[in-house]
Amino acid sequence: MKPNRPIKRVLVIKLGAMGDIVQATGPFTAIRRHHSDAHITLLTTKLFRDFAAAGDWFDEVWIDDRPTWRQLRDWKASLKRLRRARFDRVYDLQTSDRTAILFHLLGIGRKPEWSGTVVGCSHRHTNPQRDFIHTIERQAEQLGIAGIADVPAPNLDGISAEIGRFELSSPYLLLVPGSSPLRPDKRWPAGNYAELARRLIAKEITPVVIGGTAETQVASAIATFCVGSRDLTTATSIVEIVELARGAAAAVGNDTGPMHVIATAGARSVVLFSHASDPDLCGQRGPDVTILRRQPLGELSVDEVEASLRLR
Q1: Residue 283 lies in a domain
Q2: Radius of gyration of the chain (CA)
Q3: Is 194 helix (H, G, I), strand (E, B) or coil?
Q4: pLDDT tens digits, residue range 30-47?
Q5: For residue 253, which of 267, 243, 236, 237 has the smallest C-alpha distance?
Q6: Which of 98, 118, 145 is the last residue of a domain?
Q7: How far apart, in Å, do the first and last CA atoms of the chain sit?
Q8: Which of 21, 63, 109, 288 has the most CB atoms in a 10 Å sphere around its CB?
Q9: pLDDT digits 0-9 by tens, 112-159
Q10: 3-state class percentages of the chain: helix first, strand second, coil last, to nearest 5
Q11: How far apart (Å, rounded) are the C-alpha atoms in residues 165 and 75?
């Protein structure tokens, strides 16, 4: 590899999950500013294609279908596309075993500069404490090694969406009762969300429940208990959540991806943590974020959550 080779083509790798993608928007902005004249491609998963394309960070968005090792034909096709692109530098913001394998496979022949953690890469982040610092600071430190000193906070100002179809009128408050179905210990009890929704309606604030298919049952229970609440589970894209957050009086939710979107978009956010996750490492960031933590999460009272919302 020639020293100081002009960087004309850049690849950024960030596959997921939702919160990770949102917290990478600061690095996305920094990379775009640093390589203002370069052609920048993001490699991500299908779930985040529209979100990534809605911003002004990338010239192209490529999809990694994440083939298994049994799908050798798909692996070969992916590698062929990556090699043909002849990237000058790669920013590996995923830093997983999968991206380490890509580094070694792409290293055959013309080797791109690589920012990441894999042994042998040109701009390696070697801080032994990297797994014990917040994602945002960790990625900023990684980019600093690659010569990008100014990494802003995550920001979604460039994202917009039309949400008129939801026919919401203010004031409304977003409720995010979900989390990974495999992590029930990260969920505040559904009955608590229903009671909070009842109190919101008494204040003439519409509770709006968002989430995926795993949250439809909770949303249905809230709708039954609280006439006047709205169930938008499975109905919202990531970019629509951004716009919903901008119009919301506030939001309450578990430690889950949509709460990263909402907090970063600027809504007053109360995020509920158990000891199943650590806000010091992955907590939501934004202009008005309150973290409440209990173990077990069921010990967190509705009174305390309501008070944290600072609603009149």
Answers
A1: yes
A2: 21
A3: helix
A4: 999 999 999 999 999 999
A5: 267
A6: 145
A7: 62
A8: 21
A9: 999 999 999 999 999 999 999 999 999 999 999 999 999 999 999 999
A10: 40, 15, 40
A11: 40
